[in-house]
Design a protein that fits this description.
heterotrimer; A mainly alpha (about 110); B alpha+beta (about 525); C mainly alpha (about 100); A: about 110 residues; about 85% helix; B: about 525 residues; alpha+beta; 8-stranded antiparallel beta sheet; 20 helices
Chain lengths: ~110, ~525, ~100
């Protein structure tokens, strides 16, 4: 049970990481939100941190030997998924973009 | 010209030339390789008597040894035993060499009784060897073609990275609504980039696994050409010659297996089980029993150990452990062999293989469209298209037809006849796909994708009719190998329908746009097409 | 020679480069595996390890040579280097054991 949950968690962090990295690119941000706006700056480091977390989870779960095989392929899968969702199923991506926008504005205003 | 531009230009033609020359072979290798990820599961689908429930403990003393005594096995012959596992539920014993030719027998580990197996090569006997030898055995030519394709693949990956100008910007970009040329290139870039480590690891290890084929003389230089010195020192594998003095045949091997497994388990810290047993010089005073752990269940690296026992005295003669560099190579090659158990890794590697196949197919398609747009006489277009269609959808359709033939052919055809008929169906369908593509020209893609969809929806039905294992049955019985095969086939059918509908839609859009669009440039221009 | 190479039509120039990269590259890789395997085992590495190392690194040598042959500005010089290095390594390999 805990093993399945950890795998799911690794997948989710890797996917969110890829999604944030995609949102940090102007092209995708503009395609999802109104033209002319820019995504909050925290998205890029957040993306990398989430991807690092997924590595950590994979290594904790399966060890370094299997981890070295699983993690790059997990990233491949989530990156393809991100690209496909940006093309065919934008809604969750828009939700994520809005969420990160409100998250960043909350940080600025005390 | 600027030196970087000049370099990029040379990488561009190199990418194009190697791609055109070898993408047909590369697609076949990646497609068949991807199918081989689940070859033992597909075997269970193709051989109903080999379907579980799997029993992993079996006594060789009660099954294999009596069979060997009955079968007139001589000391000059080699005996091997493949232990049963969840992936391969049947116990297999084989004998090769000698006058009475290769012998094979299968046992059901649950009952210890011998089983007659369906006459088929299965996935592990047809798809799997196809991916490294193309079944061209004359002078080992197939191995060399695949080796050349593997080198080309490595070069294609390197040159591809150099010609791709916007790696970071385009990383997540797939624009299906843009021109077909653009979206094809997007797919080519994405599938290539995201699985980059995979695309380097697999051709690389493909070459190292067959290093003794490609670089035999050179690899054996440190051993003065003695191949057995090499296999013994690097892999702990050596030839056992009979003394020529008859002795009582080996009476028990179960104890050897148990002891070897205990040694490996305590050494690695994870439960280890022997998967391959050899009995050499059977019925001779120099008879030996070799216990191997070549595909550890819970490790990536293969060849984790070979323990040799003297059959008569029961003394351990060798306990081989690979050295560090060999071990690193074993990890890389083990990732290619995928003999391990965890299924999430297997699914991810299957996905990686499909990414490779998709990258090769989209690369070929992109080049073809660019050529046609630049102006190519109709006959050449027809030939190029027929070759592409046949090597992509034709290959997929033929693999599906192979599965259909497996369920449709009558079971009572003698010997290997039935197995060879399945192979005949594969090659006939493949050949027909080229002919059909040449005749139907532009319509060929859509026709063949529809055929693939039809095959994919028919296969699980045939499985149901011929074995009674409908999806609900196999799932409720926990027959995941059979259910999984059915589900993957169904999913590919769904994908084929989607592709066929998309192709139709694209044709309509392209036809409407045909008059308005300017003529396209080369691969380099297209690679830098700005986001419109 | 460079001037001559420039006179070649594109397709011929590229065919020569590919042939040099693939065929010449194969022979260099072959010599490299033999040379490295013997040299490393003479330096004290176990023979199996030396051969495994040579095999593992060989594909990178091969790819490098294909890319270099395709991209070089001085094709003739590259050809000389490729052919010479293959021959020299092959000739030297047996003498390594005598050192």
């Amino acid at each position: 049970m805990i093993h399945t949950a950890l795998l799911l968690f690794a997948f989710l962090t890797a996917f969110l990481g890829c999604a944030f990295l995609a949102l940090s690119q102007d092209r995708h941000w503009r395609a999802l939100m109104e033209r002319g706006t820019l995504g909050p700056a925290f998205q890029r480091p957040a993306g990398w941190i989430l991807i690092a977390v997924s590595l950590l989870v994979v290594v904790l779960r399966d060890g370094g030997s299997f981890g070295a095989l699983i993690w790059p392929l997990l990233l491949a899968l989530t990156a393809v998924l991100t690209a496909l969702m940006l093309a065919y199923w934008k809604k969750p991506m828009v939700v994520l973009a809005r969420a990160s926008l409100s998250l960043s504005s909350r940080n600025i205003t005390p | 010209m600027h030196i970087a531009d000049e370099f990029r230009k040379s990488m561009n033609w190199l990418h194009t030339w190697l791609g055109i020359a070898l993408s047909g072979v590369l697609f076949a290798v990646f497609w068949m390789g991807s199918l081989s990820v689940f070859m033992y599961e597909t075997d269970q689908w193709m051989m109903p008597e080999a379907r579980g429930p799997a029993v992993e403990t079996v006594s060789l003393d009660e099954t294999v040894l009596p069979w060997l005594e009955q079968s007139d096995v001589s000391a000059e012959q080699s005996v091997f035993v493949v232990m049963p596992s969840v992936r391969k539920p049947l116990l297999r014993v084989g004998v090769f060499g000698g006058d009475n030719g290769p012998l094979n027998a299968y046992f059901d580990p649950a009952t210890g009784k011998q089983v007659e197996r369906t006459g088929t090569f299965g996935s592990s006997g047809f798809f799997y060897p196809f991916h490294y030898s193309l079944h061209i055995n004359w002078q080992g030519l197939g191995y060399w073609i695949v080796g050349l394709a593997a080198m080309a693949m490595l070069t294609l990956v390197v040159s591809g990275i150099f010609i791709h100008r916007k790696i970071v910007q385009d990383f997540f970009s797939f624009r299906p609504t843009k021109a077909l040329r653009r979206s094809t290139l997007d797919l080519h870039n994405i599938t290539g980039l995201v699985a980059l480590p995979f695309h380097i690891l697999f051709p690389l290890t493909g070459i190292t696994i067959f290093a003794l084929v490609y670089f035999e003389g050179a690899a054996l230089k440190p051993f003065k050409g003695e191949v057995f010195d090499y296999t013994r020192e690097a892999n702990g594998y050596y030839v056992i010659e009979p003394d020529g003095v008859a002795a009582d045949p080996v009476q028990s091997v179960d104890g050897f297996i148990e002891e070897a497994e205990a040694i490996w388990t305590s050494r690695s810290g994870t439960p280890a089980s022997a998967d391959y047993i050899r009995i050499e010089a059977y019925g001779d005073t120099n008879s030996k029993v070799v216990i191997q752990h070549s595909g550890p269940r819970l490790q990536v690296a293969r060849s984790q150990g070979r323990i040799v026992y003297d059959a008569a005295s029961g003394e351990m003669e060798q306990d081989f452990q690979p050295a560090p560099i060999r071990n690193a190579l074993s990890w890389l090659e083990g990732a290619h062999y995928m003999m391990f158990r965890p299924y999430h890794v297997r699914w991810l590697l299957f996905f990686g293989g499909l990414m490779g196949a998709a990258m090769i197919a989209t690369g070929l398609l992109f080049w073809m469209r660019a050529r046609i747009r630049k102006g190519l006489e109709p006959t050449s277009v027809r030939v190029v298209r027929a070759l592409s269609v046949g090597s992509i959808t034709g290959m997929i359709g033929a693999s599906g037809a192979f599965l259909l033939a497996n369920r449709l052919l009558p079971l009572d055809i003698d010997g290997d006849g039935r197995a060879y008929l399945e192979v005949l169906v594969f090659y006939s369908v493949w050949l027909l796909s080229f002919v059909h593509a040449a005749i139907r020209n532009k319509q060929a893609w859509r026709d063949q994708v529809w055929v693939i969809a039809g095959i994919a929806f028919l296969a699980p039905v045939l499985n149901w009719v011929s074995t009674g294992d409908f999806l609900t049955v196999s799932i409720s019985q926990g027959q995941w190998a059979v259910a999984g095969t059915d589900l993957v086939i169904l999913a590919s059918g769904g994908l084929a329908v989607f592709a066929a509908l998309r192709l139709k839609q694209t044709e309509r859009v392209e036809a409407a746009k045909a008059q308005r669009r300017p003529v396209a440039g080369s691969l380099a221009d297209a690679a830098s097409v700005p986001a419109e | 020679m460079t001037a001559l190479a420039r006179k070649l039509p594109d397709w011929m120039d590229r065919t020569v480069r590919l042939a040099l990269g693939l065929i010449g590259g194969y022979f260099v890789t072959n010599s490299y595996i033999g040379f490295t395997g013997v040299a490393l085992s003479e330096l004290g590495l176990a023979r199996g390890e030396a051969a495994s190392f040579a095999i593992l690194t060989s594909a990178f040598v091969f790819v490098g040579l294909i890319v270099w042959s395709a991209a070089t500005r001085r094709l003739f010089r590259t050809a000389i280097v490729v052919i010479a290095s293959s021959i020299i390594m092959a000739i030297c390999t047996p003498y390594l054991t005598a050192l």
